[in-house]
Amino acid sequence: MPDRESDPEALRLELRPLLAAALTTCVAALFNRFPLTYSDSGNYLDNAIDLIHLKKPWFFFRPLAYGAFLTPFATPFTIWLLPLAQGLLVAVAIRLTSGKVIPRQTVGTNMTAKQISDWTNS
Known about the structure:
The protein is an all-alpha fold. It has one domain. The protein has helices at residues 8-24, 27-32, 41-52, 64-69, 82-101, 113-121. α1 crosses α5 (82-101).
C-alpha cells in the first residue's frame, strides 16, 4: 500500500468514497429543503448558539459535547453544511469499523462467488 503522505493520488482515491457517502447523506436534507433530519436537532443547535454567545447551555436535555460540535454550523448559512459534516463522520466511522471487521485484502470488486462463500463461512 502506498504511503499516503508521499502519494497524494492514493489519498485522493481513499477520500473519494468517503466524500461520496457524505454527499449521499445530504439527499434527505435537499429533498426536505431543510438541513435538519431529526426532530431534536433544534435543541442541540440551541445549545450551540448558547455556547457561541457565552450563555449557560441547557445541558439537562441534550449532551453538551454534540452542541459544541455544532457551533460552526449554528448560522443560517453554515447550517446547510451540517448534513455533509455528519455524513462524513458516519462514513469515516463505517470505514474504520469495516476495516476491522472485513479484511482489507478481500474487499473488492474482483471477488468470486467461491471467495465470498469462503470468507463468509470462516
